[in-house]
Design brief:
137 residues, alpha/beta, Rossmann fold, 5-stranded parallel beta sheet, two-stranded antiparallel ribbon
Length: 137
């Protein structure tokens, strides 16, 4: 499973985005299932603007199960808040924190993002160890 961050979702569905072609090429090469989170979707819809064609294409993509949606429970939300404090110097927003918590719970280290700098800094906790993410661009 590969977790999808906000940047690729915006770029994939907004042909004017400078990362559009690169993200389309990356998506076409991915064979694993994709998942994202509600905070990531919220951020993507905000950037795309709710009534835009890109927003409509993103809604269609999710409706056609192009990516599954991972949901927070209370413990996951509290873990996200903890991560936001840990990475406050970046600063880490809720969307990024949700990706890290999803990676911890879904046991994946792969993330499709255009935000390489932040995601190469973040670590996924597995027991007492911390692991770097594999950034898919």
């Amino acid at each position: 499973m590969i977790l999808v961050d906000t940047g690729p979702l915006v770029a994939l569905f907004d042909p004017k985005d400078e990362q559009h072609s690169r993200c389309r090429k990356t998506l076409s090469s991915i064979r694993e299932s994709l998942s994202t989170t509600i905070p990531v979707l919220t951020e993507a819809f905000h950037i795309l603007q709710p009534q835009s064609a890109g927003s409509g294409r993103l809604r269609d993509f999710i409706a056609r199960k192009g990516a599954s949606i991972w949901n927070f429970d209370r413990a996951a939300l509290l873990r996200a808040f903890e991560l936001m404090e840990t990475y406050a110097d970046r600063p880490m927003d809720l969307a990024d924190a949700s990706i890290i918590v999803a990676a911890e719970q879904l046991k994946t280290l792969r993330v499709f993002t255009i935000d390489r700098n932040d995601f190469q800094t973040y670590r996924v906790r597995r027991g007492h160890r911390y692991h770097p993410l594999e950034v898919i661009e």
